[in-house]
Amino acid sequence: MTEKAQIKAILTDIEGTTSALSFVKDVLFPYAYNKLPAYIRENQGDISEILGSVREIENNASLNTEEVIETMRRWIEEDRKITPLKTLQGMIWQEGYENGELQGHIYIDALEGLQRWKAEGLPLYIYSSGSVPAQKLLFAHTTHGDLTPLFSGYFDTHIGSKLEKDSYERIAAHINVPASAVLFLSDNIGEIEAASATGMNVILLDRDSVVTDTKGYKTVQSFDEIDPALGLAA
After folding, report:
1. Which pLDDT does position 3 carry in this prediction?
2. Cβ neighbours of residue 200 closer than 8 Å, sequence gap 6 or more
């Protein structure tokens, strides 16, 4: 990179980056796991396409409703990044957010960093394995209020796997910003590598200093350490 990277957009992950992994793993996943059976039984007609996708992925068109429920709960246990599961989880979480049982978590340094960059005129985008509706729900119902006005767009697994270079190329094309002018933030080294392969500027969030091999990528523990004017850790 040149001394001035001319960052024109920021793309950020959620889990472990803007929000605690524990919120997703210890709050959101168990909530969906527990609510899923009743939700499917009560809404089969409305979510028939999702249930059909499960049968297609499992290559078993004869799966009955209870077997689909068992399959999707197993996927949750395995932390599978599968679109029909993420879509259904988002629908279940919507009920939880709307009835006040759930509130989205965001790190204060992430909040302040995003607000600062938005004020500086940088468009902000989210890319998460969670569905776009689930992303919007999290940021619309945080302990700091509705943060959705901060963001210019959201991306999920419909655009591709977060571990594949092509996904980041599609995002850059979609937002009409050259990859070399995008700064991507994530706690996942595989995602960092995939984004970097497109020419994106990347910074690894290692909040708890647990990454044993950063592979030479810029690494920080907080958004406070990031200066997008340079595209580098401050």
Report:
1. 40
2. 11, 168, 172, 179, 180, 182, 183, 184
- Backbone phi and psi for residue 114, each to the nearest 5 degrees, phi listed first: -65, -40
DSSP, residue by residue, 30-74: HHHHHHHHHHHHHSTTTTHHHHHHHHHHTT-TT--HHHHHHHHHH
By the 8 A CB rule, do 179 and 8 touch?
no
pLDDT at 134: 86
65-124 pLDDT per residue, tens: 999 999 999 999 998 988 899 899 989 999 999 999 999 999 999 999 999 999 999 999
Q: Does domain 24-98 have CATH number 1.10.720.60?
A: yes
Q: How far apart are CA 207 and CA 20, in angstroms?
A: 10
d(CA 119, CA 88): 34
Determine contact, residues 86/156, Cβ cutoff 8 Å: yes
pLDDT of residue 234: 47
Q: Domain extents for the chain?
A: 9-19+104-233, 24-98
Average pLDDT over all residues of the chain: 93
What pLDDT, on the 0 to 100 scale, is given for residue 232?
55
Q: Which CATH superfamily is domain 9-19+104-233 in?
A: HAD superfamily/HAD-like (3.40.50.1000)
